[in-house]
Amino acid sequence: MDNATQPQSTHHFNRSWLIGVLLLSLPPLFWAGNFIVGRSVRFEIPPLQLSFYRWVLASLLFLPFSIKVLRREWPLYLKHKYLIILASVTGISAFNTLIYWGLQSTKANNALILNAFIPLLISLLGVFVAGLKLRAKQWLGLVVSFVGVLIIIARGDPAFISSMSINQGDAIVFVAMICWAIYTLSLKSMPKEINRLGLMSIQMLVGLAFLAPFFANELVHGAPAHWTMHAILSLVYVGIVPSVIAYLLYTQCIERLGPTKAGMSINLIPVFGVVLSTLFLGETVHAYQAIGMVCIFIGIALN
């Protein structure tokens, strides 16, 4: 009996482990691409327009699959309207808009180091606001992973961080990180009976409603978008991969693994940034980057 059930148990473990790895790694991979694309089109598409068009495209892709769910679960959305509004404003309206806005004036290194604060912010807000309990091993994992990010961004030189200057763009990006921490915790608080496909769709629609007046103001008073082929392809990418696929996977990651471990996965963004730079920019991997990556993976494993 034991021998008969052992292969099945091993298969279940391997499958669960693989799913966990994919849920932890794919969203930060796709979002690393979002940072690269968002930075590359900063002179072609203004930040609010990029964010608004991104979610319009994502919503159009979602609606055919979610319209029936939206109609069926409308009473649930009204019942939990404040929680849905909180998630929509922080995760859809604010986070990416603030990132695109901040990247107009801050250095990429500064944005990355601020990005590393997300797991700490999630844990701190979870402990002091949501009553989340963390074990000593989880706190250790947060610290080790955070150190790994610092090693990568500082290029192995601690003096590099102390020489960094803080500007308005940095402050904007840091507010975006706070928004993402709130978004993560709000998703964890969502009732289980709400269908996740419908939830993502309603968040996009509510988020677009909040973005609309700011988008209109930028359209009238801001710089116009220049629709080059590069700009169009960039919009297609951010409207599909980080907006639809990554958000759905991240929601599942929170459901299966909890907000702390899901938040820790954000630290993989600079890791994938190194990989993408190697593949597309011809840069080489240095020893400090390898050490930083190891620290990040150890930190995630401890959680």
From TrEMBL:
Domain EamA: 19-153, 169-302
Annotated membrane topology: Multi-pass membrane protein
Residues that span the membrane, as ranges: 12-32, 52-70, 82-101, 113-132, 139-156, 168-185, 197-215, 227-250, 262-280, 286-302
Transmembrane recorded as keyword: yes
Annotated keywords: Cell membrane, Membrane, Transmembrane, Transmembrane helix
Alphabetized PANTHER family for the sequence: INNER MEMBRANE PROTEIN YTFF, OS03G0707200 PROTEIN-RELATED
Name of the featured protein: DMT family transporter
Organism of provenance: Vibrio porteresiae DSM 19223
